[in-house]
Specification:
two-stranded antiparallel ribbon, mainly alpha, Helix Hairpins, single chain, about 70% helix, 2 strands
Length: about 230
């Protein structure tokens, strides 16, 4: 029997590991000391990229393109860490946005190909929802970099990690439509992006719940005996 570090192209990977890594990142990152937060958060985020690449690599058509995007994203993020230049920062954020959107596309496509609901399908739906918040957070970062002052209430002092953390928090507030109001979009592009995220979050939940419930109902109907069988 042959073994490989790559997952089987015939078996859907378990999204629980990716979800666990994402949750650890969100919980641990704020607890890291300020002097170590940069590299600590980067290592955890790199683990998210690697885990996500492994989860999506089972789809043979997208295996190598997605792994290539992951490798380029990792290289650019560490280049940005080493050189700390605005051009590399923009490229790094843009690549993360591309990677997250690609990952969401692969996960959602896999979910819609599933013929029955199981724990892995539910975890995949949650992962896609969380990654969507990350994608919008990176979009907000790009907006703030190109149009400074697009969001009010962000941390001041020039610490990019604090701004990234604040925008990620803001993104989760938007996608869940909680609307606490500490951070406010003021530019036209920021406002439209925030409105788009709120609409996406609502529609995603409605569509995904309908899909999962429909699959479960169909599975029960198939499992129940027909009147002719009696």
């Amino acid at each position: 029997m042959r073994y490989s570090l790559m997952p089987s192209t015939r078996t859907t990977p378990h999204y629980g590991v990716l979800l666990l890594v994402l949750l650890i990142l969100f919980v641990v990152a704020p607890l890291l000391p300020a002097e170590r937060a940069g590299y600590g958060v980067e290592l955890f985020f790199d683990l998210v990229l690697v885990t996500g690449a492994y989860s999506a690599a089972w789809q043979s058509r997208h295996r190598f393109p997605f792994l290539a995007v992951t490798a380029v994203t990792l290289a650019m993020r560490w280049t940005d860490m080493a050189l700390d230049h605005s051009a590399f920062s923009i490229a790094s954020i843009a690549l993360v946005f591309l990677w997250v959107v690609y990952a969401i596309t692969l996960i959602v496509a896999a979910l819609f190909r599933m013929e029955k609901v199981n724990a892995n399908a539910i975890l995949g739906a949650i992962v896609a929802y969380v990654l969507a918040a990350v994608a919008f957070a990176t979009a907000f970062q790009l907006i703030e970099l190109f149009q400074p002052g697009s969001f009010t209430g962000l941390p001041t002092g020039g610490v990019q990690r604090e701004v990234e953390s604040a925008l990620l928090y803001f993104s989760f507030i938007c996608i869940t439509t909680m609307g606490f109001g500490e951070i406010v979009p003021v530019s036209e592009l920021a406002r439209s992006s925030v409105a788009l995220e709120g609409a996406f979050g609502t529609l995603y939940l409605a569509v995904m719940i309908a899909r999962l419930v429909g699959l479960q109902s169909a599975a029960k109907a198939d499992a129940s005996p027909s009147p002719s069988d009696g």
